[in-house]
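[job 0412] stage=complex_fold ligand=FE2/S2 (inorganic) cluster status=START
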Amino acid sequence: MCEDILVCECKNVCLKEIINAIQNGAKSIEDIQNSTNAGTICKMCISKEYDVYGERAVHIKELLK
Ligand code: FES
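[job 0412] stage=complex_fold status=DONE, emitting structure tokens
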């Protein structure tokens, strides 16, 4: 269970884990996928383009900017 925001529902990955991955050098969606497994199933947490119904509060692509 997340103390902050659940970014990836499929893989149960929280915002803090994504931020940690970025701080540890992840620079791309693929880096995040490799280090956290987030964004490897339905992909809705990756970007608004995949999340056509706006179901995810945060997208990995926005965090990488
Ligand atoms: S919500 Fe992240 S892959 Fe489905």
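The chain has one domain: 6-63.
[job 0412] exit 0
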